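Re: your question about Metallopeptidase family protein

S., sorry for the slow reply, the queue was backed up all week. Below is exactly what I fed in.
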Amino acid sequence: MDNPVPPRAAGPGPRRRDRHGRGMRGPIAPPQVPLAASRAEAFADLVQDSVERLERRWPQLADIDFLVLEVPPLNGAGQAWNDEAVPLGGSITAREGRPARVVIYRRPVEIRTKGRDERAALVHEVVVEQVAELLGLTPETVDPRYGED
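Result:
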């Protein structure tokens, strides 16, 4: 007798459903619907919003790189943590063909804030402080609303 259906493979194969016929039948969301952004992406968006807000007043900020890192690095392999407060950001002056950089540390900022609005305000304060340090100005000169929140 001719059997048109080939025999099933011996090993367990990928299952599309659980053993009761229920389970995932397709993607959770259609491709055109954006999925929830990760915390890192949401934080980077807050930094970008703050930078765009300042660039309207200070066009020279277009030449500065703004970076988001998880945590501040230790300065040496054998260095131990000290009793100083953990920095929320830092700035690196331009040199050797490299642009100036402002670094915002995500985890220390997130730990010090409770909600998105509070986080956005702290991110903006840190960005303003670091830009002021790079430009040699006071934070109030960089953003007249600095410290009002």
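The longest helix spans residues 116-135. Residues 39-71+86-142 form a domain with the Zincin-like fold (CATH 3.30.2010.20).

Happy to talk it through on Thursday.
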